[in-house]
Amino acid sequence: MKIYNLLTRKTEELSLAKLIFLENKSNDYIISIPHSGAYLLSEFKDRFKLSKGMLIGSDLYTDLLYDMGKGVRIIFELNNYQVNVNRFRKGGDSSMPKSLQRDPLHGRFLDGEVPLKKGYSNNEKKELLAYYDRYHELLKKEIDRMKKEKGYALVFDCHAMNSKGLRDAPDKGEERPDFMIGTVDDTSADKRIIDAFEKTLVEEAGGYGLTVKKNHPYKGGAIARIYGNPSKGVHVIMLETKKSIFYNEGFAGEKDSFKLNHDGLVLVNSIVSKAFEAASRVAKNL
């Protein structure tokens, strides 16, 4: 299929297996990566205001950031403005996620413009929902498999966030921590798993002068709320990493906008992998 790459501004050929896919490296935990994509389906490219704001509001490179060499990774490469799989399937008074509604409020650009210039037909919505459903089918299947094999499932739902809250964020204009843990007020996972994860992340990040907060500005998205059910052995922790640590966010000027910082990538990977391991050890012994 033809896709449009927002970073290169070129049209490419990419199979469905490269847009939504699973990598099985070990059975230690599941890593959900729902927002790594810089891709739009070419047939819908002209529906969007293709500006720098679209990339500023995207989670870029998270497929590289959260590559721990362990776990089962489930990756969604379509851009979150095209289909946001970390939204409830039913949004508001519509049967569609907000990113598929006619006037999506999710992630308005800094200039106040709505990303989607023209709404979708019912058939187009069904086409896009098939991508949403495919991601959640893979995630649910892996949760069920891990729970059957180990008696529990441990999911890390992994994202990146802007260094300051954007115009539609609950913390608009505020400087953000370097890492943010979302646990839906400690209900999406067993508190002992959460505590082990938080303690290790704070210790490891603090060694580099990096900060950690929990449940602010985000308590957890749809994935944490849909699947997190510790009473039934399913534990989900959402993690946000500040973008400026590992790539240029694109706020100031054109030079080096969205350029990857490999040293920052390696640093975050090292810090986060230790927190994953700490949570995994506790989950095994519950």
Quick synopsis:
The chain is an alpha/beta fold and 286 residues long. It has seven helices and ten strands.
Task: Describe the overall structure.
- The chain is α/β, with parallel strands linked by helices.
- It has seven helices and ten strands.
- It has helices spanning 16-19, 52-56, 62-65, 122-150, 191-206, 222-227, 262-284, and strands at 2-5, 10-13, 20-24, 30-33, 39-41, 72-76, 153-161, 179-182, 212-214, 234-242.
- The strands form two sheets. A seven-stranded mixed sheet has the order 3-6-4-7-10-8-9, sandwiched between helices. Strands 2-1-5 form a three-stranded antiparallel sheet, with no helix packed on it.
- Helix 5 (191-206) packs antiparallel against helix 7.
- The model is unreliable at 102-107 (pLDDT under 50).
Please, what is the average pLDDT?
A: 90
In the CATH classification, which architecture applies?
A: 3-Layer(aba) Sandwich
CATH topology: Aminopeptidase
Uncertain residue ranges: 102-107
- Portion of residues in beta strands equals 15-25%
> Helical proportion?
25-40%
Strand order of the largest sheet: 3-6-4-7-10-8-9
CATH class: Alpha Beta
